[in-house]
From TrEMBL:
It comes from the Bacteria. This is Uncharacterized protein.
Length: 161
């Protein structure tokens, strides 16, 4: 089954089987203490006078019920897988659209942040160049270092000073 998916193999296995629904048919049986059973019987299409799908001299009741239910269970599981695939595809497509919106919003906000940080840095730098926020206050002729930029932490992405 390496080249065929389980779902495709299940679809292929359903092709050509006796149309259902099926029902178990159990005769002359015995139920054991452990809950298992042994009956003559098998599975039949659920219509009057239909020929059996299979007959045996000894089958457990649970096995016969499972065999009779198998085609509908397999069809139901295939349908659920198909629905789940459709939902995943729809969610991915929606997510891609929303992701694009979020990326657009992120890029817009990031650009606004970068512009604001640049404005802060420029204002700080221009203030020192114009002498508006710092002036020489050290001994004559020896300027002291300008104070640390209070916005540096923001400008450096939140790193502590």
């Amino acid at each position: 089954m390496s080249d065929v998916s389980v779902r495709d193999a299940a679809r292929q296995a359903l092709e050509g089987i006796t149309p259902g629904p099926w029902r178990p048919s159990l005769l002359d049986g015995v139920v054991h203490e452990d809950g298992s059973s042994s009956y003559r019987g098998g599975a039949y299409p659920d219509r009057k006078g239909a020929t059996p799908i299979f007959l045996t001299n000894s089958i457990d009741q649970h096995d016969a019920e499972f065999i009779a239910a198998a085609p509908e269970l397999v069809r139901g599981l295939i349908d659920e897988l198909d629905r789940a695939d459709s939902e995943v595809i729809a969610a991915e497509q929606s997510g891609y659209r929303q992701g694009a919106i979020h990326r657009h919003d992120y890029n817009r906000v990031a650009a606004e942040r970068d512009a604001a940080l640049s404005t802060l840095q420029n204002a700080w730098d221009e203030g020192f160049e114009a002498g508006a926020t710092w002036h020489q206050s050290g001994p004559t002729g020896i300027p002291n270092d300008p104070p640390l930029n209070p916005y540096a932490r923001i400008l450096d992405g939140g790193a502590q000073q």
